[in-house]
Specification:
Elements lengths: L1 H54 L13
């Protein structure tokens, strides 16, 4: 019975380490996704500004469709 307990404790230790490792990965990916989301928003703003400067009109993405 003592051997079974030690084996279970060893398995729990491995599982805890795996959970901690996965938690670190998720936290890192969350930070990366947040950073990439901010970058995409900035790029969209820049593209809209460039389009407005080039044509002098409202960017197509901000215009209502003709049937409205």
């Amino acid at each position: 019975m003592n051997e079974r307990l030690e084996k279970a404790e060893e398995e729990i230790a491995h599982l805890r380490r795996a959970v901690d490792d996965l938690s670190d990965v998720v936290a890192r990916q969350t930070r990366e996704i947040d950073m990439l989301t901010r970058r995409v928003a900035l790029l969209m703003e820049r593209a809209a500004e460039a389009e407005a400067d080039a044509s002098g009109t409202v960017p197509l993405a901000d215009q209502k469709p003709p049937h409205w």
